[in-house]
Amino acid sequence: MGSHYVHNIDPVIFSLGESIQIRWYGVMYVIGFIISGYLLKLLVKDNFFKVTENKIDSLITTMIVCMFLGARFFYVFIYNWDYYSVNMMELLAVWKGGLSFHGALVGLCVGGYIFARQNKIPWISVMDSVALAGTQGLFFGRMGNFINGELYGRPTNSWVGIIFPNGGGLYPRHASQLYEAILEGLVLSAILWFMKGKTKIYGMIGAVFVGGYGVFRFIVEFFREPDTQLGYYFGIFTMGQILCFLMILAGVFIYVYYKKKNITI
Q1: Taking a C-beta distance cutoff of 8 angstroms, is the pair 124, 204 a contact?
Q2: Which of 1, 7, 32, 106 would bridge 137 by S-S if both were Cys, CB 3.0 to 4.6 A apart?
Q3: Helix 123-134 vs helix 101-119: crossing angle, to nearest 10
């Protein structure tokens, strides 16, 4: 195994009896949502997000439910329908894994639309605010994936390789979870907050989030192990890259569309 780091992190923080476990993965998501709530309240105080502060908890609840439903729907029907079509009893067995970021993003958009309609504010202002507050959560989510030793990358002989014994074998792989945590969670978040001080039009931040995530994830997919049940399309691209390409196009469209609409902050 050479001098490569061997991943041996216990995903369970502690157990309560035989049936209840507190896992790092869940804690990472909780941290991300807590920080998101704090940042959304800052955006309210800054008059960027034009709702009252007591509406934030309602927004977060709506987003969590819609993101979960969207993430599960995409994973089942787009990523792994061959399996679930003959194992219908496991459609809701999320404890066995199976959530899609792209589906979560669709759910996020739906949740934002519901909240915007309820509060009579522009949908795009909700999405800009959620992008600013929530992108940092991608960092914690990917760190949760790393701690779990899942979604690891492709084999590599370089010094950056990490051995994931629980599924990845005894040869080093790219820690693609960490690549995504840095690019999608930290770098993209920094870009969006820099933009906040520069743009005066709603939609620009949301557009850069969608397109920027698409670009970063498309790149990382070259280092990430593809889903075994899907493999490669056209001999080189993964399903994730195909969806990310669509995200890049969507980001360009959103940018152009809302630039013309000129909904000022």
Answers
A1: no
A2: 32
A3: 130
Question: Quick one: tokens of 104?
Answer: 């979560």
Q: Cα separation of 253 and 15, whole Å? A: 48
Contacts of 184 (CB under 8 A, 6+ apart): 135, 138, 139, 142, 213, 216, 217, 220
CB-CB neighbours of 71 under 10 Å: 22
Which segments within the chain are labelled E, that is strand? 5-6, 12-16, 20-23, 162-163
Place of tokens 């787009």: 78
Task: Retrieve residue 198's tokens.
Answer: 């520069």
DSSP string covering 159-180: TT-EE-TTTS-SS-B--HHHHH
Question: Cα 237 to the chain's mean position, in Å?
Answer: 20
Q: Are 217 and 243 in contact (CB under 8 A)?
A: no
Strands (E) in 83-232, as ranges, are 162-163
Crossing angle of the two packed helices 123-134 and 204-220, in degrees rounded to 10: 50
pLDDT score for 17: 75
CA distance to 108, 190, 256, per residue, from 262 (Å):
23, 24, 10
Nearest Cα to Cα of residue 130 among 110, 147, 149: 110
Nearest CA-CA partner of 140 in 33, 36, 28, 12: 28
The pTM for the full model equals: 0.87
The single-letter code of the amino acid at 211 is: G
Up-side HSE of residue 203: CA atoms within 13 Å toward CB? 18
- Over the stretch 158-194, which tens digit does the pLDDT of each residue have? 999 999 987 777 889 999 999 999 999 999 999 999 9
Residues of the chain with pLDDT under 50: none
